[in-house]
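Sample 1 of the test manifest.
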Amino acid sequence: MRVLIPGISGVLGHMVAHRLLAEGHEVIGIDKRPWPDAPPGVEMHHVDIRKRPAEEVFRKRRPHAVIHMATVTHLVARTEERYRINLGGTRAVFEHAVQYGVEHAIFVGRHTYYGAGPDSPLYHHEDDPPMAVTTFPELSDLVAADLYACTSLWRFPNLATSVLRFCYTLGPTGHGTLATFLRGRRVPTILGFDPLYQFMHERDVANAIVLALTSRIRGVYNVAGPQPVPLSLLIRDTGRVQIPLPEVVFANLLGRFGLPRLPKGALAHIKYPVVIDAEPFRKATGFQHEISEIQAIQEYRSAFPVR
Amino acid sequence: MAFLIDREVADRVDRVEIPFNSQGVDPYGISKKYVARSLTMLTFLYKKYFRVSVFGTENVPARGRAMLVGNHSGGVALDGAMVNASMFWEMNPPRLVQGMAEKFINRVPFMGEWANRTGHLTGLPEHAERLLRDNRLLLVFPEGARGTAKLYHERHSLVDFGTGFVRLAMKTQTPIIPFGFVGGGEAIPTIINSYTLGALVGAPYVPITPYIFAIPLPVALELRYGEPLVFEGTGSEDDEVVQGYVERIKSAIAGLIEKGAAHRKGGGQ
């Protein structure tokens, strides 16, 4: 299969590309960021997914499948830029996919779509509403991109679309929102709250994406691996020190004294859990995670020991 | 594990048949450590402070899903706590009771954390259904917060039941084990409920006793489990049908309360 990956220069993009090459697929990458040591099998195009040259890649190379990984979070880009990348980029990917006969499009989304709140149930199903728009407004562009990708399920019946909502990733690359939050020696939490965090090892993430591709599933799927664990356990077992702060203090100290810089909306996500039920994905693809939550924590810890 | 945890309690927690991971946490965030700490405290109340007589535990299945359904007795969650302790001590292997926490609890620092770590998730239908499908032992008070708000003179009565729990039991094919709890009304003799104070602390109400605070008195309590009730159906039956089942459960509980109240006064089994 010829597979096009917008956003290939991210950590997960690299891993998926390697996996696809190993399984004998042809890999084409689109990314503004360079991938200096890309393996010879990968055909790189350093273009912006929203610009004309990207369309040229679709037209000339006619990929069979597209894995859309070119979305960014608030940690990477500021609001306006983020809207352009996440919404404009997603739109371009699906429009080109339809126009140039792509058979299967995979949107790699996030479980934070469901939002965190005191009344929100554990183990979200795919049909739960996207509460993140109110609990964490900085995520609303990602929610919109996710919903936009979902529309292709009815707008383009000939294009098999998979919308995958992944839980957090944690592993030796230190990639992702959760890994970034845990990077420092001290991790602030909100006094009296200890939410569950659900994460999977990045290698399992790459496996799940490849499985979604090869089983050509159509629809919206939550993707998760092992069970969630309380934030306090996660902090302790990664060798960090938990600093519980009263909520008012926490909100005012963000970004100072070596504490992570987080938008105010992130507070709900440090007080309450976002946990998803990934049973339909397991049934549809036969996916099973290889790395337990405890192993993932240990691998992160040895890759990022506390100085 | 040692701080504020009784050795014997910890050993029994190890025998609870729930899939804990290697760190002692289950998929819902229930923590062995918290459960052991909470049961260490409850055990003191269960065995030493109150004299709790328990009858009919043979009616509770040793394994698999079940719904314990009973009356509220006393202005705070004393009844739930004693049901929890009775299932932990009288069942073999011990069973962990999972209640449904009032919604306000999750917003209060520490309270929500404590409730979640000991298995009492927020009272949402999604949680109840999932726990039953996972073969857990669910505790339901169909009287809801109106039940704990009963005053002293109303202590042996039952307020209206909801119907959602019966529909859920039918949908998930769960046996309902009725129970009657007697004595909580004497332990916490509520003369009035202050809804104003409640609003101040974020709770539905605060019970006021003759000695002001709702600190339970060391009285004798009685807990009686009745025979399982199983209702066939899908859970989407008409209200009249479901209401009939609710009445049967309610009269079973009323019978257990009556029996308990009589026995407690010294009138035989």
